[in-house]
Amino acid sequence: PPVIRREDYKPYPWIVSETHLDFDLGLDATRVVSKLTVARNAKADPADTMRLNGDGLELLSVKVDGEVVNNWRMDGDDLILPLSSDAHEVEIATEIDPSANTQLMGLYASGGMLCTQCEAEGFRRITFFPDRPDVLSVYTVKMRGSAEQFPVMLCNGNEVATGEEEGERWAEWHDPWPKPSYLFALVAGDLVSNRGTFTTMNGREVELNIWVREEDLPRTDHALESLRKSMKWDEETFGREYDLDLFNIVAVSDFNMGAMENKGLNVFNTKYVLADQETATDADYDAIEGVIAHEYFHNWSGNRITCRDWFQLSLKEGFTVLRDQLFSQDMQGEAVKRIEDVRILRAAQFPEDSGPLAHPIRPDSYREISNFYTATIYNKGAEVIRMMRTMAGPEKFREGTDLYFDRHDGEAATCEDFVSAIEDGAGLDLKQFRLWYSQAGTPRVTVAQEVVGDGLKLTLSQEVPATPGQSEKKPVPIPLRLAVHSRANGATGPEQLAVLTEAEQTFEYPLAGPDPVVSINRGFSAPVRIKRDVSQDDLAFLAASDDDPFARYEALQELAVGHLVAVASGDRSDADRAAGEDALAKALGAILTDDALDDAMRGELMTLPSESYLFEQMDRPDPARIHEAREGLKATLGTTLASEFHALYDRCEAVPFDGEGARGARKVKTQVLTYAAASDPAKAAELAAHQYDKADNMTDRQGALMVLCGLECPERTARLLDFYNRYKGNALVIDKWFTLQALSLHPQAIEHVKALAKHDDFTLRNPNRVRSLYMAFAGNPQAFHAADGEGYRMLADLILELDPINPQTAARFVPSLGKWRKIEEGRAEKMRGELERIAKAGNLSRDIYEQVARSLE
Ligand code: B3K
Ligand code: ZN
């Protein structure tokens, strides 16, 4: 497959001012007639042909200005149409089979309904079209089909007219806002809606609908409420008002990702719509709120201003992730949300940035764009924009985004346009900062401190590691929020912002008292790794009393990482090990009993660094030893702090579902169970079974079952069976049932996964189900990294079997095997062997080909 390069960008030679689409809908055969009004683009190199992208289409006819023509030719899947004058009407008829579309890109059938997914290049699977984000057009769409099968027909924009005769229904929709083809959407099926309204800041009333299958209607209130909150927040925080009279969200159960921001018609994975107390956890509720916000916010950051080409993807995704993070911080609490976002960044993006698939947030080349919807584009992209906001301050940053929205409204813009607008509007100099867009790799910052007189001299140095294709790196501006506290008198120093721009630089700050302790990268102000020599006592001090909640979390993590890495590497003497456990028990004990902490925050602080995070901190480690070290620590802490844990559990257990601080209490309860499971499995099984049995909500029930899943006990079998029977037929909850077993700490988890893959409810056709089993499995270090390589074999088999069905979803599993260079040699060879086996198989999709080739390079 050819490589597409950012530097080769050329504007499209034709302007497509209007697009008329006519759909004759059928699950097995849909006919599409598209009429395009085209004119030469004066800003592009002149061309005497028009390239229309296609993919798997059956072409029925081509007309130019009303006459059938046959002078077109095919170039691969694209249609090349000669055009002689400056303006034409082009009409193309195609036929597609939505039922056969297992890739879930373009128009496809899902549970008897029809729906679309067009980003990034799905529209070309519906009709021949310049399927690129810089070709904006005004769409008018007519749909026709069986009134019984498709009583509801939806498209972008507003409904203009409908009619029905002789069992056939039709509807015409018009979207006044010019848009790229990737934002096109169509839905037809038997759906009902939870309807609401929102009155915008200028007093316009907008109709809101959450469309679902009838039986799901009772679980849509939270989604509707989340949408209203998002609309209000975007007006207040970014000055963005909604711009149509209608906003539709449709929930679909077969979907490749979370959701899609099609203009006026968002299509969602049911996972990010449906919730009630009985079937959704607190985390599910938050995720729904966050994804609804994300897609809604795209209406401005993505739709009103879109991307010039797909290399600019982070323009809309990085910015929109930042917007949804800030929204969720306001809704759910700043500190806890920030900790969660940093945890995601470290779990998903840091490994990407240090592995074979590393790429800058604005990549330079790709073969398959679907492979670039990554944690780097999304989450690091958000961090990069967050740094601009930190340097400018929120008010100035808002002036920058106002200017951006003003300046580029209606355009297909670039990352450079965004940076310039922030520069001009916020009054920042971002010349050097632009390196964050072009360089991959997570910078490492080394901190050294020295007391000089009554001040602290802080020497900061940075290094950006080499990444594939980028051996030489330049220093980047790194904004570090920091404070200098005193351990001796407990005084906290004022917060400062140090922007490290050189390879090495010194900063000086006044002391708050003797024994200075530096609190650095507070709030995780920069997406970097910090390296420093810091004593356990200093970390314990920060964990107990830093005034920045993120820094408290970070200090505890650092304390645990230092200990666990040393234990797992085998270079801790027994005495050192005991001292490390002691320090951690003291620090954690303080957290468990600190009355000033709310439980939501306590729950975060109680979370030990994950095995994969520890893995990242070590040089070609053996994952089994990390597992052993971490479980061992949990057991020790569980024993040492048993009475504190139990007191905490009892207090939290007394909080009713809707009581004050109930969410935090639920989080803490399950955390306590995880420690108990390691230290006193019999007691843990009893407690967890009890929690399961009396649960009146999914958070408690799932938490309890998670703990039981990791134990070998009779309670496990009984509750797993109960859970399955209780929720049979509810796909999203059955997904949880698969996930809990695939992720479990149970020593036979790998055997369980094999059996589950043969379960009647397992299917490769549904991405949620595939991920529920295999993403969980790939994230279960103990099972996936089985020393004999069986886990790797299973994943490679899955990739090969799934690729012909759904390459986009299959490709998501490749990065797990791509870690081979970072693991101990025995496993490394087995992982690489599986990648090679995939590479040798014939007929690979572009998606898999690219990911595997890059992973082997
Ligand atoms: N923009 C979509 C992602 C499309 C992914 C296509 N492979 C959802 C989002 O980021 O909001
Ligand atoms: Zn997005």
Itemize the secondary structure elements and their pairings:
Blueprint: E1 4-5, E2 14-24, E3 30-40, E4 49-52, E5 58-64, E6 67-68, E7 73-75, E8 78-82, E9 87-96, E10 106-110, E11 113-117, E12 137-146, E13 152-155, E14 158-165, E15 168-179, E16 186-189, E17 192-199, E18 205-212, H1 221-238, E19 246-252, E20 259-260, E21 265-269, H2 282-297, E22 306-307, H3 313-332, H4 334-353, E23 365-366, H5 375-392, H6 394-408, E24 412-413, H7 415-426, H8 435-438, E25 444-452, E26 455-463, E27 478-486, E28 496-500, E29 504-510, E30 516-520, E31 529-532, H9 536-545, H10 549-568, H11 574-593, H12 599-605, H13 611-616, H14 623-640, H15 642-653, H16 662-679, H17 681-694, H18 698-709, H19 714-727, H20 731-742, H21 749-757, H22 767-778, H23 781-784, H24 790-802, H25 807-811, H26 814-817, H27 825-840, H28 846-856
Bound molecules: (3S)-3,7-diaminoheptanoic acid and zinc ion.
